[in-house]
Write a structure and sequence with these properties.
The protein has two domains: 128 residues, Luciferase-like domain (TIM Barrel, Alpha-Beta Barrel); 128 residues, Alpha-Beta Barrel (TIM Barrel). Helix content is 43%, strand content 17%. It has twelve helices and eleven strands. Helix 1 packs parallel to helix 12 and helix 7 packs across helix 8. The longest helix is centred in the middle third of the chain and has 17 residues. One of its GO terms (molecular function) is oxidoreductase activity, acting on paired donors, with incorporation or reduction of molecular oxygen. This is LLM class flavin-dependent oxidoreductase.
Length: 309
């Protein structure tokens, strides 16, 4: 199992961001051996949310050989042409290290701000992904749909031949997994929305969908995003973090307990082993607070326990 570090894009405590904060965070992640840096998309949230694409671009020079990933970006909200342009630039300046994760988004407020109908997100997403492939020069022909039309690839082309791999986010629904198999190069699952057991069952269904689509199930990657993380004790500190997280996500703390990495190192490692057994190859951890300390504690106290009971 590989581990990525999600950029601290949410202002949980009202402190905001100072110049250099993101770069220092990436320095810590790189020095600790994280494999990737990720960011995702919201226009509006319960807390202030730093723009993911801009944040990711700002740390390219500090990321070394780590991959860059969006987990996920919103091609419907941003528009497929604008997202393709930004993705190509990120791929160029990073030397071809971008994985472009996309999804519909779960916030009606984002769609309202973009002047779009939230109920149209699914058909729009299908078309937007096809348009992205044309814009990024991935061998797709000109695309004409109901919502989007893409006549040809945009220039300059991405550094990665054929464009960066496009992974598709899904919480594991039948329709979502069919979309992943049909249009994607990998699956981005959501930790707080899918237990290890649900991921394992979804992997079986995804394998069948990949076979129907004529794709190799063994070479199809599966990663886990929105893995909220805070390594702490088992007492009140843990319960307070879970309760606050539950309020933010509109989820019961008991539902989150076996899905996210909040609690003692041994419990976090057990959760990760369950996801590993379910077929997850990479996890993007997202510290809820004390980001530098949590990056270190996770690598020092949790990761060594994942490979053994």
């Amino acid at each position: 199992m590989r581990f990525g570090a999600h950029l601290p894009l949410i202002d949980f405590d009202g402190r905001g961001w100072r110049p250099g904060d993101l770069g220092a965070y990436v320095d810590t992640a790189r020095q600790l051996g994280y494999a990737s840096i990720s960011a995702n998309d919201h226009l509006e949230f319960q807390h202030p949310w730093l723009d993911g694409l801009v944040a990711l671009a700002s740390v390219v020079e500090r990321s070394g050989e780590m991959r860059l990933a969006t987990t996920v970006s919103l091609p419907v909200v941003r528009g497929p042409a604008a997202l393709a342009k930004a993705a190509a630039a990120l791929d160029i300046v990073s030397g071809g290290r971008l994985t472009l994760g996309v999804g519909p988004g779960s916030s009606a407020r984002d769609y309202a701000l973009a002047g779009l109908d939230f109920d149209e997100r699914w058909p729009r997403l299908d078309e937007a992904i096809r348009a992205l492939r044309t814009y990024l020069g991935s061998g797709a022909s000109a695309y004409q749909g109901r919502f989007y039309a893409a006549a040809s690839a945009l220039r300059p082309a991405p550094a990665c031949p054929g464009g960066p791999p496009i992974w598709i986010g899904s919480w594991g629904s039948e329709a979502g997994l069919r979309r992943v198999a049909r249009l994607g190069d990998g699956w981005l699952a959501s930790a707080y929305n899918a237990s290890p057991g649900q991921v394992a069952a979804a992997r079986v269904r995804l394998g069948a969908a990949l076979e129907r689509a004529g794709k190799d199930r063994d070479g199809f990657g599966c990663a886990l995003a929105t893995m909220w993380t805070y390594v702490t004790g088992s007492g009140p500190a843990r319960e307070a973090r879970l309760s606050a997280l539950g309020r933010m996500l509109n989820r019961a703390p008991d539902q989150l307990r076996q899905r996210v990495l909040v609690g003692p190192a041994a419990d976090c490692a057990a959760t990760l082993r369950a996801y590993l057994d379910a077929g997850i190859g990479e996890v993007f951890i997202w510290p809820l607070a004390d980001p530098h300390d949590q990056l270190e504690r996770f690598m020092r106290d949790v990761v060594p326990l994942v490979a053994r009971p």
